[in-house]
Amino acid sequence: MSIVDKNKIEQELNNFREWNYKNNSISRQFSFDLYMDGIEFVNAVALIAEKENHHPDLMIGWCSVQVNYTSHDLGGVTEKCLHMAKLTEELYRE
Question: Which of 12, 15, 61, 81 could form a disulfide with 77 if both were Cys (CB 3.0 to 4.6 A apart)?
Fold first, then answer.
């Protein structure tokens, strides 16, 4: 697996809502009505991440969750990161 170039990352992110590319990672802030909704979302993301063997950095706040994907081994965004962003977005829409 290799790093995806910036143009492809930006093109792919046009298909997602509110995702950003910065500091060699892609990220999005997700909002929830209740704190526990965010916790349930984190648990669901964790299950998908474990299944796909690609784990995000997560920051839990009050009724919000920040999700960041990057390849720590390669130092940037890979196709797997983009795939995980798509799965995360789909999970949020459910």
Answer: 81
- pLDDT (tens digit, 9 = 90+) per residue, 31-62? 999 999 999 999 999 999 999 999 999 999 99
The CATH homologous superfamily to which domain 6-93 belongs is: Transcriptional coactivator/pterin dehydratase (3.30.1360.20)
Distance, CA of 50 to CA of 52 (rounded, Å): 5
- Measured CA to CA, the distance from residue 84 to residue 81 in angstroms comes to 5
User: Over the range 48-71, which residues count as b (16 or more CB within 10 Å of their CB) and which as e?
Assistant: bbeeeebebeeeeeeeebebbbbb
Residue 59 vs residues 2, 4, 8, 29, 63: alpha-carbon distances, Å: 26, 24, 26, 9, 11
Instruction: Quote the pTM value.
Output: 0.93
